[in-house]
Records
---
Amino acid sequence: MSDHYEENEGRLPGPESHPRGRGETAIIYPVLSRRARGLSLGINLFPDRKQCTYDCPYCEVRPFSAPGARMRPGMVEAGLRAFFAHEWRMYSEQFELRDISVSGNGEPTLSPFLEEALEAAHRVLQDLAGANPYFAGVPIVLITNSSGFLRPDICEMLERFSQRARLEVWAKLDGGSPAMHRILSGSEFAYGRIVDAIAGFAVRVPIKLQTMLCRDSRSGRILFDAEGYLATLQSLVQRKARIGAIQLYTVARPPAEPWIAGLDDAELLTIAGRVRAALPAGIGVECFGRTGHIE
Ligand code: SF4
């Protein structure tokens, strides 16, 4: 999903607005991340065109096509190794690496290269940790819109991987009701099915939930059913879903649809307060406005 790009504060090369080259280097991109709070190294599994199960009106992946940029076996590992060999020294003077993130121009669970990418990131981090133990603690983050949890093969692969690597799964949960979810996902995936799929996965592997908060500027309506959202969270908790944190965020860059507008910090903090009050103390609620973390 595109949310990884949405975080880019514009000071580093983004994957589509600033192509980083061809071949391996086109799929590896450093991002200053609001939510990772530092440098996140992205792996874009869709360098040729956007592929997603959703069509979110707030999506920040621009329509584009680079048919020459095809994924090939071995490409992710080659790209990561090239980055650390040739570029990392420059970045490391200013930033700590907070994570390696599998995201990019679409929904990564659609890619036949997902497992290979996770394994490549794990191998590269292990090798780097031989010289610098810091890298052993760097997580590999999968940013998903949650529709992949409907696929047992994806869930099993992620569970296996999580048992031997430092995997974090950041999963989208938008809207809080079937009607709002339909608007915000631009899809016919039933809200209840997605929630059930999140619950089924999160009892096996811990997740962070990510929720977009925005408004329809034509009506002024916030596209969020707060009551429904809180009820959904409580049902996930009752079902023993392992939710480490909830990240509430708003639009930070131009969205796909011009009628989508971001919320201001005060609106976000009001919603965050309600969410926090409805949850057990162990689940953190983080809030990200247009320019970064707010509290
Ligand atoms: S999940 Fe939504 S925001 Fe993410 S890439 Fe797909 S359409 Fe865009």
---
Amino acid sequence: MKKYPIILAVLLFAACPGDNVAEEYKLPEPLQTNRSIEECLAGRRSIRSFTSDTLTTGQIATLLWAAQGITDTARGLRTAPSAGATYPLEAYLVTHQGIFLYHPAAHKITLIKKGDKRVELTVACLGQVWVGSAPVSIVLCAVPERTSRRYGERAMRYIWLEAGHAAQNILLEAVALDLGGVPIGAFSDDAVSKLLDLDKAEDKTIPLYVLPVGIPKR
Ligand SMILES: Cc1cc2nc3c(=O)[nH]c(=O)nc-3n(C[C@H](O)[C@H](O)[C@H](O)COP(=O)(O)O)c2cc1C
């Protein structure tokens, strides 16, 4: 009889993978690959078909670092350039365990929402099925005020350009890690904002780009 509670607990855990999720995860140092930048540029292709494998914490940490990681701790400068170093971008991570926010300075992620929201993200991306089939998506968002307080109306142009820099970093890093991804611009702003709880963020935040990444199905 005693073993039934254990079996039940295992079944419940298997049924609710998002239930055992910590509020925050300190990420490991980015992995070091031996691929040249030219090899990654030549190998990058939009990938829309993924195996069902999840990514390792090291791979996720490396992709987030490529997007917005700190590369000069003294001055807080990052992998991607930023107009006036105003750093408007925020990188959200969507996995089978939940939705997380990346904190570049601490190189950690914090939980925004528990549970597998990849189907909701697919719907928000107008039903593009490859979004939901990827083990992770990085959603690049921005807090426009950080840049507009210095650059006024010019700021939105800078923010979009900056999202392109960060997105390309992610896509090239994916190739270096033997992964693949696709940049997604077609989505409902309102649906992605609602999914990521952007209305609860400290400052007004808008979604810019969705990047599903996984192991390419060959
Ligand atoms: C701004 C932008 C938005 C894009 N949006 C989508 C999208 O919503 N869905 C998609 O499947 N691909 C999207 N793509 C990927 C393009 O379709 C792809 O880059 C193009 O077909 C060239 O192929 P390649 O990336 O393999 O070189 C987007 C690309 C860019 C640059």
